[in-house]
């Protein structure tokens, strides 16, 4: 999830043309039957691929079930308890499915992150359309219900770290929703799939067991502006032994991003909104232009964790002190420079890394808490299934690639935890 230019260069000429075509005529919010606007993300639910993914995973019934349950509520408090419960249930159902527990619900592979994404959007659309019969619901209250559902269905209410500082290490990881959906609505995000596969699991390391807890985040500028990352991570960073934010990066490689920059480059998010500005944070007067990883990147690169090569990515783009034009610096930022792209670009993957590591530093944890960002390879469909106009929603190569990425992230965490 890198900068616009990086994303386009890694899609290739045909993929870039398709993406630019999608961005030239973006989906826009449109009124539902009752006149209330659906979001750009929710409108994509009406396309064939999301419907098929939901049907073939058994997640297609969840939004209608929520709508029926909402119709029986008698108060706002009851409605809020319901959406939190259903949000948590959705997250646990997705995690259980990914980890082989309970019914598969269909023939879409269990490792797939997309049923969770599309089911959540179906549920938020129901909440947006709902008009209670027994009490009034202003837009402020409705927004709070949607936010509660979002948080609960992303595992952010479900982080269960071992108590105390015993023999089990504690690892926190984050993933993202699928993105660039107007280029190809079939897209999956391996970072989100990894979060589902690893949440609540134990990794055996050279230093003993390590418990992994995972949360996910939307690909929306507004949520990051509103402090979603800090709200979700602040309670847990002081209690963990290692953290890494994870997103999808380049084709055919992993990158451990050495440096993160305080700049938004403007690439459109899942709502087709662009932002080009300094990353907005609390106390901007003390905001640094750059933050750095404290992950054991040398050990991770040399760790032999899977079939994809792993790189220590040191390159950034900066405006040098006293300069006016951006310059690429392969070895990292220079003194007094202004950020224009971190190692992970200038999109939301760079921003989550910047926010998480800035939070680490502001909490006084830099010297004792290993943390940073890992970019996974792009999750590619198999040969003969690359054209979104004619392709299927899944194929054996697509599943194999996702499983290999998940397994390699697990290996990277094993190495990192052994060194922390």
Q: Profile the largest sheet.
A: 7 strands, mixed
Number of strands: 16
Q: Rg, please?
A: 21 Å
Strand order of the largest sheet: 4-5-3-6-16-7-12
Distance between the termini: 27 Å
Helix share bin:
25-40%
Order of helices and strands: HEEHHHHHHEHEEHHEEEEEEHEEEEHEH
Proportion of β residues? 15-25%
Mean pLDDT: 92
Overall shape: it is globular
| Low-pLDDT ranges | 3-26
Class by SSE composition: alpha/beta
Query: With helices defined by DSSP (H or I, 4 residues minimum), what is the helix count?
Result: 13
**Oligomeric form of this entry?**
single chain
Question: Can you offer a commentary on this structure?
Answer:
The protein is of the alpha/beta class and 420 residues long. Helix content is 38%, strand content 17%. It contains 13 helices and 16 strands. The chain has helices at 4-24, 40-43, 48-55, 62-70, 76-98, 114-129, 139-152, 190-198, 221-225, 228-233, 297-301, 348-362, 396-419; strands spanning 30-31, 37-38, 169-176, 202-205, 208-217, 242-248, 254-257, 259-261, 263-265, 276-278, 290-292, 310-313, 316-319, 327-329, 338-341, 371-376. It is globular and about 60 Å long.
Give a short synopsis of this structure:
With 420 residues, the protein is an alpha/beta fold. Helices cover 38% and strands 17% of the residues.
């Amino acid at each position: 999830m890198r900068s616009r230019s990086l994303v386009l260069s890694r899609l290739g000429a045909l993929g870039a043309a398709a993406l630019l075509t999608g961005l030239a005529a973006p989906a826009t919010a449109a009124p539902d039957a009752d006149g209330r606007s659906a979001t750009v993300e929710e409108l994509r639910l009406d396309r064939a691929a999301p419907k098929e993914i939901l049907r073939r995973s058994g997640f297609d019934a969840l939004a209608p079930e929520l709508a029926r349950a909402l119709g029986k509520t008698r108060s706002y408090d009851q409605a809020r308890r319901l959406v939190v419960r259903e949000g948590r249930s959705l997250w646990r159902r997705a995690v259980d499915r990914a980890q082989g527990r309970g019914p598969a619900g269909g023939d879409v592979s269990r490792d797939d992150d997309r049923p969770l994404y599309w089911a959540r959007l179906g549920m938020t659309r129901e909440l947006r359309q709902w008009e209670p019969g027994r009490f009034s619901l202003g837009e402020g209250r409705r927004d709070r219900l949607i936010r509660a559902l979002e948080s609960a269905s992303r595992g952010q209410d479900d982080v269960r770290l071992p108590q105390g500082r015993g023999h089990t290490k504690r690892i926190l990881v984050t993933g993202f929703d699928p993105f660039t959906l107007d280029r190809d609505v079939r897209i999956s995000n391996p970072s989100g799939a990894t979060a589902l596969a690893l949440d609540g699991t134990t990794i055996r390391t050279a230093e003993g067991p390590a418990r992994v807890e995972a949360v996910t985040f939307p690909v929306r500028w507004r949520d990051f502006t509103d402090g979603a990352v800090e709200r979700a991570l602040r309670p847990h960073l002081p209690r963990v032994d290692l953290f890494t934010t994870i997103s999808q990066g380049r084709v055919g490689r992993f990158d451990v991003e050495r440096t993160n920059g305080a700049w938004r480059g403007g690439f459109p998010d899942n709502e087709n909104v662009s932002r080009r500005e300094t990353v907005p944070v609390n106390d901007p007067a003390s905001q640094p232009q750059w933050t750095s990883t404290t992950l054991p990147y040398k050990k991770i690169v040399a760790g032999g964790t899977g079939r994809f090569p792993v790189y220590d990515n040191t390159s950034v783009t900066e405006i040098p002190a006293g300069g006016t034009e951006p310059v690429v610096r392969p070895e990292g930022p220079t003194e007094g420079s202004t950020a224009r792209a971190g190692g992970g670009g200038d999109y939301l993957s760079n921003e989550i890394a910047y926010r998480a590591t800035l939070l680490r530093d502001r909490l006084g944890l830099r010297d004792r808490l290993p943390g940073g960002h890992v970019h996974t390879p792009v999750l590619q469909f198999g040969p003969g299934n690359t054209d979104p106009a004619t392709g299927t929603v899944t194929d054996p190569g697509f599943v194999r690639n996702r499983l290999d990425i998940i397994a390699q992230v697990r290996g990277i965490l094993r190495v990192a935890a052994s060194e922390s």
